[in-house]
Amino acid sequence: MNIKYIEHIGIAVKSIEVAKKYYEDVLGLYCYAIEEVKDQKVKTAFFKIGDTKIELLEPTDPESPVAKFIEKRGEGIHHIAFAVKDIESSIKELQAKGVQMIDQNPRMGAEGLHIAFIHPKSSLGVLTEICENKSE
Ligand code: CMX
Fold it and tell me: Mean pLDDT over residues 82-103, rounded?
């Protein structure tokens, strides 16, 4: 598998409106996009640092994975996402290595990325996303 860089770090928050103030006013970062990802039942806010982004995740539904995460563990780091060269072959490679994939096929994530999650039980407790920007 060809991991190119850390695409983003996903951080679960109760409110983007509240959390955004910390990232902007305290850390001096700029929120360049807010987008709802209906499929994942989240609203996202993005900040860029070099090649990597911080992705704030606010649940839009009490049954969403992020809502369940906050209920169990509180706000905090939710997942890490690696940009890969070819997501379809990366999924096949991971499956062949016995890794438990949440997504057997890529689906559409924020910013038009093709994404797939590895189950945290297969990645030492760290929910891991692989993603590909097909226009790169
Ligand atoms: N990081 C690490 N472990 C996590 C986790 C996370 N983010 N979320 C859940 N877990 C752990 C739980 O702590 C629990 O562990 P234990 O069994 O030891 O208690 C286990 O996974 C099962 O958790 P659960 O609360 O019962 O939740 P589910 O099994 O229903 O779902 C998961 C867990 C990871 C399969 C689900 O959250 C999922 O499909 N995630 C991928 C999609 C996603 O997170 N989307 C939001 C981001 C979207 C985006 O970035 O665009």
Answer: 98
